Amino acid sequence: MELKEKLVSSFMAFEDTVDVDSPVHDIRTEAIKHFENEGFPTKRQEAWKYTSLNSILKYDYSVFPKHEEALDFKDVKKYFIHDIDAYKIVFIDGKYSSHLSQTTHDGIDVCLMSAALTKPKYRLVIENYFNKIAAKDGLSSLNTAFSAEGAYIHIPKNKLVEKPIQILHFSTGNEAALMLQPRNLVVVDENSHVQIIERHQSLTDNPVLTNSVTEIFANKRAIVDYYKIQNDRETASLIDNTFINQKQESIAKVHTFSFGGKITRNNLNFYQNGERIDSTMKGITIIGNKQHVDHNTLVHHIEPNCESHQDYKGIFGDSATGVFNGKVLVEKEAQKTDAFQANNNILLSDKASINTKPQLEIFADDVKCSHGCTIGQLDESAMFYLRSRGIPEKEARGLLMFAFSNNVLDSVKIPEIKNRITKIIAGKLGVNIGFDL
Amino acid sequence: MLKIKNLHASVEDKAILRGINLEVKPGEVHAIMGPNGSGKSTLASVIAGKEDYEVEEGDIIFEGENINELAPEERAHKGVFLSFQYPVEIPGVSVTNFMKTAINETRKAKGLEDMPANEMLKMIREKSELLEIDRKFLSRSLNEGFSGGEKKRNEIFQMAMLEPKLAILDETDSGLDIDALRIVANGVNKLKSKDNAVIVITHYQRLLDYIVPDYVHVLHNGRIVKSGSADLAHELEAKGYDWIKEEVNA
């Protein structure tokens, strides 16, 4: 059976596990119909021209893992940013792990989607926010149809959440192949500030396909800092669909660090519903072998006096392939928009490739929009300069690549994350970064 | 220390050096002068090992060893230093981290441990004072947004840190105002000893007022056509290069 048919027919079995009388279930039922109509995207669609999912749709994925697995913290510690005090929402094969988690209801809600979707005290928030900005395309609809578990974060107004929140998804390989549909909802009310770190990690080489949807609402003057660490095995694929709705004077920043995985697709969408909004998306991609990373961004400038900043750096070795497709849509009303987009890439081998495509659609006449993409090799004059000072070729190469990607880290506000990412980058580039940053 | 014998070098099949002979002994300062396009910078780059240049013929002997085939970093490890005419801007690498990496890679090549951090800091402090370099400057990205004078001072700072046996200063005076020129020259003079040597490549004589050469060579069309004492530089300053060209062609 094709994966699509399998998923559609699994929906009935899924219905046995959820409350079919809740309003949320009407949304699910609607979504499975959407998915049935739309199916998985193909390369015939413009937005998927350079990314084919065929190689990962062929597996016979388990949709509902049969076993529950426990993990010892010491075995998976390295996947956490463990040197900071943080809230943790951890899932193992899609199931919540209370053992590894540290949730809270103390003034803020850092807990589970399964609870939020079923308990009356969350009903209002769910009614107001759930599935309000997620796209209606095939993949997001598929996730909506099976939405049952994930992270639920609600920060009421005037709260500065000091501890970051880590969301981790482990897959153990108990299933020969596993498909996950995590669903996250993040609501940050007026003047509040939250930092979130998200990671998906496969622990074996059994194929995993994660189709994740995260809806984020940054209300008036809220600040949301979101870090996605993607450094998975080459048998794990991730389709990340993130939607961010911003109200006036809010700031939302998403950093995406893509260092591994078979196919990684990031659909990152910002909607600016208010004035003086700041949207920032930054990314570092360093991959090799036959890995593929596709960044598909959208910033929808709807109202005047807003900003958006995009800065994506990519280093592609071996036969790795990359895609950057950045769309900036400026509505007629969105005067004085300041939109900046940069995508710079280094190809380390003749077989590596990057398709980069800025898409600016501007209907306002008083705006500042700039974009630039570069694809190049390392600067030979810089190489000679470093080598003439005694730095060997390999180290010089590493240092230049490190320097190339480094400035993206300037906006990372959590030092522990910065250190971790720095170490991963140094490891990927095979250099000993023997100095402090 | 350095012996160059009948050196021919080309870039993209265009012959630039056409038989250079030069010997530099420890403790000596040599000036290489010559009109634009005579091959001065090529000579500097070839000695430092720039791979864009093809050595067609001849030998570069450094400390008794032929270094023709050595990589730039291997030459640096042996004590060759080139102060660049146009230092390259490297965003994202601070001056300090660059120097630490360069020093420790050089030590590694010699089988030594990394320099202890406190020793490194002390050295950085001393040498930056010598070149009158502000501490803040050291945490900036290498050469990025530096003025012409800052770039050249930074080159000599690197030279001070790496303590080479042979320093080649390629047009270090270009783009320097008189104060910067004095600081740079003063730095070079303080680093001079009986064991190391300096080759000053320049178009003009003014740097040679501060760094006084033992020998002056005139390069023309890829050959050294005239050698003499410091007085030759003054003569060139007064009379230009045309008389040399005429002499050669006569």
Structure description:
The complex is a heterodimer of chains A (437) and B (250). Helix content of chain A is 22%, strand content 37%. Chain A is built from 10 helices and 20 strands. Chain A has a 10-stranded mixed beta sheet with strand order 2-1-5-8-10-12-14-16-18-20, covered by helices on one side. The longest helix of chain A has 16 residues, at 23-38. In chain B, helix 2 (72-78) packs across helix 3 and helix 6 runs parallel beside helix 7. In chain B, 38% of the residues lie in helices and 28% in strands. Chain B has helices at residues 40-48, 72-78, 95-109, 117-130, 135-138, 148-162, 178-191, 230-239, 242-249; strands at 2-11, 14-24, 29-33, 54-62, 65-66, 80-83, 90-94, 141-142, 166-170, 197-202, 215-220, 223-228. With 250 residues, chain B is of the alpha/beta class. The chains are: A alpha/beta (437), B alpha/beta (250). The A-B interface holds A 379-382, 384-393, 395-396, 399-400, 402-404, 406-407, 434-435 and B 48-52, 71-73, 75-77, 81-82, 84, 87-88, 90-93, 96-98, 100-106, 109, 114, 141, 158, 162. Chain A: InterPro entries: Fe-S_cluster_assembly_SufBD, SUF_FeS_clus_asmbl_SufBD_core, SUF_FeS_clus_asmbl_SufBD_sf, SUF_FeS_clus_asmbl_SufD, SufBD_N. Chain A: Pfam families: SUFBD_core, SufBD_N. Chain A: Residues 174-404 form the SUF system FeS cluster assembly SufBD core domain.
